[in-house]
Design goal:
heterodimer, A: 273 residues, alpha/beta, TIM Barrel, 8-stranded parallel β-barrel, 20% strand, B: 241 residues, 2 domains, 3 strands
């Protein structure tokens, strides 16, 4: 996949318009879990493959589950990847399933040696099933888990070393996490293995006031904020231009607004190249 | 151990109890609100009937009682109609649960494969006896939803482009056949004889036997008209050889 042009997250309200007008975009990213049924939306995506490269972003594999991956869900995601042959496949450093229930949230992990063993085993199983490496994304953090013995970037670096996976660096998530947990972004970036970053994500976030304390919420419901653009610029300078995605999932704007955001990301990538 | 830690964390997500850790409330709120949004996608008519705020609270209560078992949210909500039937705050809306059944059937049809429909030309070469003894299978996603209320009219009146014309609830009962077409899901309203015909075929009866049951249900039942309607709607699967 070319790093030169940024892509957009393909969302249901834009599907028909993109199918009809085929606007210029670096690539299209879909959430795997929305395309695991033989719906008309999947047929549209299969048509769009003629004009676009795809990235498959899974949100429900629960790489952090102590119980291991759900074999049935893993098989469905693997079948989709085989069918679409995307340029990139990614998931999150989080868990979302426990005890046979699916919580539809990216829940935090304690960064411990035990959790690392669990995530490494789950990522290896996923990569074996797909026959290719995947990129693992840093989620937004709201809770400092007292049990953690490693930092998030140390955990990610070890995960890369032991599983051979790549990283999806979400600049918005990093900004949100650093604010909410009081982390130093420079220190966080310095600990990541520079050559492991395969993709960047950008999105908007909300500011919530919780009893006088500002908490940033990763809601993908607005334009990318100035602080996140600045952090993205810093990431591109450190890790080099990589395929970059703009996500917008709630209060979804007109397609042109999203494409303008992607154009801005493309210019940042071009400036650093 | 991670397993025990995750069990304890998960136990705090689907609960009404107030939790001192307000950051955990961010996760709890996201679990409930994102799953309620997913249900609104699958049950748009129910949401249109009760309004966004009432729907959100209703969905949140359903999520706590019957959370998803797997991550494909288009497949979550099979029990929502039954939940609504028992949901006291919606008791005044007697037709709500049946409307939810129609929404769910449309959702299932939308996510069903579209392939391998009956080619009526394949029937033209059969003898009359063979045809009468034939059993026909329905295509994936086809479902008959019966209701004492006019749920097809309620569905139409709830569309964003519908006018303000009220629906007369006395215009029930409804027999709504949901189907998967090439570009999505839709439905047709059937007469009593046609509905009985569909149910008999679905039970594995031959065309002849099903037509007999349909005529018993509705004396004026017209087999060739019913068959033409159903075949035009592409509800039959291809013949198995």
């Amino acid at each position: 996949m070319q790093a030169a042009a940024a892509g957009i997250g393909l969302r249901a309200p834009h599907l028909a318009e993109i199918d009809r007008t085929r606007p210029k975009a670096g690539f299209l990213e879909i959430h795997a879990e929305n395309y695991l049924t033989p719906s008309p939306a999947l047929a549209t995506v299969e048509r769009l493959r003629a004009d676009y490269e795809f990235s498959v972003h899974a949100v429900g594999l629960s790489l952090g589950s102590a119980e291991g991956l759900d074999a049935a869900h893993l098989a469905r995601v693997a079948a989709l990847v085989k069918r679409l042959e995307p340029a990139l496949v990614s998931e999150h450093l989080a868990w979302s399933t426990f005890g046979g229930r699916y919580y539809n949230d990216l829940l935090p992990l304690p960064f411990t040696e035990e959790a690392l063993d669990v995530v490494v085993a789950n990522v290896q199983r996923l990569q074996e099933m797909l026959g290719r490496p995947v990129a693992v994304e840093n989620p937004s953090g709201y809770l400092a888990i007292a049990q953690s013995t490693l930092t998030e970037p140390e955990f990610l670096a070890e995960l890369v070393r032991r599983s051979g996976c790549r990283l999806l660096l979400d600049a918005n998530n990093l900004h949100v996490t650093a604010h909410n947990l009081g982390l130093d972004v420079g220190d966080w970036l310095d600990k990541l293995p520079a050559d492991a970053v395969a993709e960047f994500h950008l999105a908007g976030h909300a500011e919530n006031d919780a009893d006088g304390e500002t908490v940033l919420i990763d809601d993908h419901g607005s334009a990318v904020r100035a602080e996140v653009w600045a952090l993205f610029d810093r990431c591109v300078r450190r890790f080099g231009p990589r395929p970059t995605l703009v996500e917008w999932d709630t209060d979804i704007p007109a397609l042109g607004v999203l494409l303008d955001e992607a154009d801005r990301a493309t210019r940042v990538l071009a400036d650093a190249a | 151990m991670l397993r025990e830690w995750q069990a304890a964390f998960a136990a705090q997500l689907l609960t009404d109890a107030s939790v001192s850790e307000k950051r955990l409330a961010i996760h709890r709120h996201h679990v409930a609100s994102s799953l309620a949004r997913a249900l609104a996608v699958s049950f748009p008519t129910v949401e249109a009937l009760v309004g966004a705020e009432f729907f959100r609270e209703t969905a949140r209560r359903f999520v706590m009682q019957d959370p998803p078992r797997q991550p494909v949210l288009a497949e979550y909500g099979a029990g929502f109609a039954d939940f609504l039937a028992e949901y006291a705050p919606a008791r005044g809306l007697s037709y709500l649960a049946d409307t939810a059944r129609l929404d769910w059937a449309l959702n299932v049809a939308f996510h069903s494969p579209y392939a391998g429909r009956l080619d009526a030309a394949a029937l033209a070469t059969m003898t009359a006896d063979d045809l009468a003894g034939l059993s026909l299978a329905f295509a994936p996603g086809v479902a008959l939803v019966r209701s004492a209320y006019p749920i097809g009219l309620i569905w139409k009146a709830s569309q964003p482009d519908a006018g303000d014309e009220p629906v007369d609830l006395a215009r029930g009962p409804a027999r709504v056949l949901v189907l998967r077409q090439s570009d999505g899901a839709s439905f047709v309203s059937l007469g009593e004889g046609e509905a009985a015909f569909v149910e008999a075929l679905d039970d594995g009866r031959s065309i002849e036997a099903a037509a007999g049951m349909a005529a018993a249900a509705e004396p004026g039942f017209d087999l060739s008209r019913a068959f033409a309607l159903l075949n035009t709607c592409e509800v039959f699967a291809a013949l198995q050889h």
